[in-house]
Structures are given as structure tokens and as C-alpha cells.
From TrEMBL:
This is FHS family L-fucose permease-like MFS transporter. Pfam families: MFS_1. The lineage of its organism: Bacteria, Pseudomonadati, Bacteroidota, Chitinophagia, Chitinophagales. GO terms for molecular function: fucose:proton symporter activity. The chain crosses the membrane at residues 12-31, 51-72, 79-99, 105-129, 150-169, 181-200, 234-255, 270-288, 300-319, 325-346, 358-378, 384-404. Residues 14-408 form the Major facilitator superfamily (MFS) profile domain. It is found in: Cell inner membrane. InterPro entries: Lfuc_symporter_FucP, MFS, MFS_dom, MFS_trans_sf, MFS_TsgA-like. NCBIfam families: fucP (TIGR00885). PROSITE patterns: MFS. It is a multi-pass membrane protein. SUPFAM superfamilies: MFS general substrate transporter. Keywords: Cell membrane, Membrane, Transmembrane, Transmembrane helix.
Amino acid sequence: MNKVRFTERQYIVIFIFVTSLFMLWGIAHSISDVLNKHFQNVLDVSKAESGLIQMSVFGAYFVMSIPAGLFMKRFGYKPGVLLGLILFAGGTFLFVPAANAGSFGFFRIALFILGCGMATLETVAHPFAAALGDQRSSDRRVNFAQSFNAVGAIIGPIIGTFFLLRATSSNHDGNLDPVKWLYVGLGIFILLVAVAFLLVKVPSLANPHEAPAGSESANTDTAPDKPLIKHRHFVWAAIAQFFNVAAQAGTWGYFINYGHDVMGYSDEKAGSYLAVFMVMMALGRFIGTYLMKFIAPNKLLAAFTMGSIIACILVAQKWGWVSYAALFSINFFFSIMFPTIFSLGLKNLGKRTQQASSFISMGVVGGAVMPYFMGMIADKDVATAYYLPIVCYFFIFLFAAKYYKVRY
């Protein structure tokens, strides 16, 4: 039996660049989790109100995923990436007038535009990474790229804690300059990345999703006459992604609050632990990618889902470092969920892979819902709020155990 290659030599350069995009939006997502606590301090918003930050970002995924998919289908991967980077940068620069106005609503508009950019990048980058090689190794390829998303998620809290929580640890005077200049710097960097990508030559891909059925790298459509909505594994992937991102956004959004309220740490110290929290995700993705060489992706997903359920129960008990360690472990178990759900949902959809990618990306809107409801509970007891994600893991487990299967 021939060994399936991770990718082909002619795709290495562009795969490295696509992988770097995963890291970029990982930085932005994790900084927004620091913003939750920062805006609670500086703008005097409640925990539930601070959850509207995630609603703005993830709500953009619901609005932008389909247009981004249509744009990608019409113009291709490279223009899709450039569009995402331009929107991304535009959102960061809107932080300047938002900070000058001192308006939480204006910040939410800026975050929505930024989220539109991230939604476009994610819609394009996942099928892009999956297309750069044999479909049989697409799970490993997407998980590897997502590993660098976790690296970005480590960098984000370090930057956010230093520029935001450190700046307000002893001064809650409403000064929003740290937020403004942090995002201006991020926007300039994103524009530089866009210019670099503009100069990168993308190898001819001759639409790999429509490759001949007998081709080794073909994403063969097993039922070309069946409507997309009738592909059960795709529908359940979109459902599972909704609940996965819902659980993730809520867990991340109140991590600093848990450290402050339950463990008694300062905001700055709790924020510094957020970087370690993200290390757990990076570790999980690298280990998970390796384990997929020996364990079927759906089985590993099911096992990690059960680990998350047990961890949530422990977190809610407030047993000191036992519960805090369990909170860290949740991010380890999160590690493979997003990319594995994504890649399993795109299996054997042929030329409709790009359209399916848009719909699965829309599932990210789950992240707009959970933080607000967790915040309502967290305003009374942040530990009790961690029971809520268990509902999400139930649906993910169903997908991993049964509904991932491609039916002919």
C-alpha cells in the first residue's frame, strides 16, 4: 500500500503561507478574550455585556461566511485571502475612532468588521489547506495548520495582558489609548502580510474538488445528484461546529474571570495564565495530529469530547487547583475539535466542497451566543457557568460517534 503524502513538493511554500494565516486569526481571537476583562474594568460593563464582544466577532461569521464562499468560488483562493486580510485590517483601524469616542457600541462595530475578515479567511483557508494534497491526508493537513492557530492563541494573551490588563491593573480611569494603539499595530502588520501574499505565486490548482473520480487526490462526490442538505455528515458537521465554537467562546471568554473570582488572582496574573491555557491547545493539536496516524479522527474526537465533559464538571466544583487544572485541560481537548469537525464534514462532496465550507463556517455563530448566556450565570457564579458547555459536547459526541459517516 502506498504511503499517503502529507502534501506535495510544489505546494510547500503556499501551504506554509496558508498556515501562517491560521496563526494570525488565532492572535486576534485570543486578544478579544482579554478585551472581555479589560472592558469590564475600563468601560464598567457586566460579564454578560462583555460577552457581546464575542457576539460581534462570531456574529460576523454568520453574516460573512456565505458571501465569502461565493467570492472564493468566483475568484479563487488568493483573492479570497486578500479580501479577508483587507477586512481584517479595516476592523482594527476602526478601533481608533471607537477609542476616541469611548463607545462600547462603536467597539462592537469595529469587532464585527474585524470578524468579517476572520470569517473570510477561515472560509477560504480550510478548504485551501485541504486542497493542497491528497484528500486522505486532509485531516492531518488541516489539523497541522490549526496547530499554528493555537500558537497564535498563545501569543495573543501575552500581547493583550501586557498592553491592556497590565496598563489598567492599578488605573481604571477609562484610558482607551492602549486598546487603540494595540489594534493599530495589529492592522499595520496585517497589511504587510497582505502585501507579501500578493507577491506569492499560488501554484495552479485546477480546482482539486472537481478532479476526475479516479484521481488519487480527488474529493470524489459519492452522490452527485443528492442535494447538499441531504448529506447527513455535512449537516451534522455544521451543527457540531455551532456547539463546538459556542463552548469554546464561552470557556475562553471567562477564563480570566475564573482566575480572578475563584482563584483570587489579579487580572494581570489571571491574564498571564491565559497564555499557558493556550499552550495546552497547541500541545493538544500537535499530539492530536500525530495520534491521527494511528486513531481514526472521529474516534479521537469522541474521546476528546468525553474528556471535556469530565473537565467541565470538575471546573464547576471550585476545588482549587484541581478545578483550575481541569479548566486548562479543556483547551487541550478543544484542540482537534474545530479542524476535525471541519474536515469530516467536507468528505466526498466534490465540487460542492467550497459551498459546504461556507455553511460549516456559519456554524461558528455559536460563539456569538454562548458567552452572553454564560455571562448571565457568571455574574452570579463564574464556576457554575461551566456546566453550560456540557450541552454542547453532547451534540459533538453524537457527530463523532455516529453522524460523521458518509452515506452513499
